[in-house]
Design a protein that fits this description.
The chain is α+β, with helices and mostly antiparallel strands. Helix content is about 20%, strand content about 35%. The strands form two sheets. The chain has a five-stranded antiparallel beta sheet. A five-stranded mixed beta sheet has the order 2-10-9-4-7, with no helix packed on it. Strand 9 and strand 10 form a beta hairpin. It is elongated, with a radius of gyration of 19 Å. The protein starts with a helix and ends with a strand. The chain binds copper (II) ion (CU). The site of copper (II) ion has 5 residues, from loops.
Length: about 200
């Protein structure tokens, strides 16, 4: 497989554009590791997520380096939108889940704000080595603008912590919560989780 053919096929499969540097590193690794198409998506995501990026070490409050309107549209996507913790107990304490989100579009996307639907739940953005503060429910805690840039192809994690004991004895039973991510690409991205809480 030639280098250009590798780039073309991986780009076509994901239907997304990557920065040129990421593409060439990606295809070089790909040739070494495997030529099969099915693994490209998985490997590509893992390699890109593992790569250090210039923006990754900046404070979360830094403005994006280029405007979202530069070329085409950015698109913020999540791999699994709804997660189920199953049966969890108040006695066992807080539970955590990380959602993987990715800019699958052609232009940078800015993550502006993150907040949760209830005071028992917090959400933090983990991008590279950086982790934001944990944000809660509007009205209970301040929800500052964070302006975290996501370049095309970039991934981050949304770390959600749910405290099943936060509502006291009344919190027993099935629950559902939502984490909202306001972003420059369009309507807010909503991540949901469910659980059944026991004492
Ligand atoms: Cu709650």
């Amino acid at each position: 497989m030639t280098k250009s053919a590798t780039i073309k096929s991986s780009a076509a499969m994901e239907n997304t554009a990557r920065p040129e540097a990421a593409k060439s590193r990606f295809s070089t690794k790909l040739k070494v590791i495997i030529g099969a198409g099915a693994a490209v998506l998985v490997l590509g995501g893992a390699i890109i997520a593992a790569m250090p990026e210039p923006g990754a070490n900046k404070p979360a409050t830094v403005e994006p380096s280029s405007p979202a309107s530069a070329t085409g549209a950015g698109t913020l996507n999540v791999f699994v939108k709804k997660y189920n913790f199953g049966s969890i107990s108040m006695a066992a304490g807080k539970v955590t889940h990380r959602y993987a989100i990715r800019n699958t579009g052609m232009a940078p996307v800015t993550i502006q704000k993150m907040y949760t639907s209830c005071m028992c739940t917090t959400a933090a953005l983990v991008k590279g080595e950086k982790k934001s503060a944990a944000f809660g429910m509007p009205g209970h805690t301040p929800i500052p603008t964070i302006n975290v840039p996501m370049n095309p192809g970039e991934e981050a994690m949304v770390e959600v912590i749910f405290d099943p004991a936060a509502h006291g004895p009344a919190g027993v039973g099935p629950i559902e919560r939502v984490v909202t991510i306001e972003n420059s690409a369009g309507p807010p991205l909503e991540l949901a989780f469910a659980a059944t809480v026991t004492p």
